[in-house]
Amino acid sequence: MCLVSEVENPNAACMSRGRARAVRLRFTTAEDNVGAGPLLLYGWRPGVDVPTMRVRQAFQSGVDGRIPDSFAAAQQATATSAYYEPAQAHQHWHLMGFEHFELRTPGGGVLVADRKNGFCLGDRYATADAGVLPAVVRDDDTPQGRLGRVLAANTCNMHDPAALTVTQGISVGRGDDYRYTVDFQWLDITAVPSGTYDVVNTVNGDRTLRESDYGNNSSSIAISVRWPGGARSAPEVITRAPQVRLLRSCPGRDRCAGT
Questions:
Q1: Residue 90: helix, strand or coil by DSSP?
Q2: Which of 45, 115, 156, 159 could bond to 50 as cystine, CB 3.0-4.6 Å?
């Protein structure tokens, strides 16, 4: 929980005392690739006068294992785009609309939606099941292995707002996360009454990107929110955060509190 006075600042410092103007529920989110091939995206724009890049999705060949190495070679046009995020915590190119999170009632009604502004995708960690996934790279001297080295070092052209191309993606058996300390990794629960809710994280919700299985694109946690003194809602003057307690975790499901 984070009490803030600077509501206009997406990465405002948490207050330890004094009057707060907003209460933010901060959390880390993560996305794993457990599929049959790498998620690989290439962005391109014709010049620096065009503010966003078009994005294409590339697929590994099932015949010879080759992986496209450029926007021009990528097979699938997408409806998404990439843009340069200048905020201090980012300063790199973001894939737009990839991830969204919401606070929902147990019945599925949306109370609070995120303000997240995109994602920079790369191989940040090995997934818990990497050792048993059939498509995990076993040989570094393969197209997948060489791509993995690129994605492990990927910073999405950090500090390069003049870039004309960008590469993003996640290898099989790898994942990417955004820490709770990063801009917009929060939901504003100032106006949320005491009660039980779901925090739902969804990737590729509009199915802009092609996948073999869309059924596991949402995960959720059930939480309890209790304002101080047993109050139903926030007091007029907020000096203390509500108590937020994790009730359960529901990986791969968009509902948790009602189960």
A1: coil
A2: 45
Radius of gyration of the chain (CA): 20
From CA 144, how far away is CA 164, in angstroms rounded? Answer: 24
Can you tell me which residue has the tokens 């590339």?
58
pLDDT tens digits for range 56-109: 999 999 889 999 999 999 999 999 999 999 988 789 999 999 999 999 999 999
CA distance 225 to 233: 10
Reduced to 3 states (helix: H, G, I; strand: E, B; else coil), residue 45 is coil
Report the alpha-carbon distance of residue 67 to residue 35 in Å, rounded. 16
Q: Do 245 and 222 contact (CB within 8 A), yes or no?
A: no
Where are the chain's structural domains?
2-250
Report how far residue 165's alpha carbon sits from residue 214's, in angstroms, rounded to the nearest whole number.
Answer: 28
Is the entire prediction scored with pTM above 0.85?
Answer: yes
Residue 18: closest CA among 39, 3, 8: 3
Residues 15 and 239 sit within 8 Å (Cβ to Cβ): no
Residues 82 and 84: their CA atoms lie apart, in Å, by 7
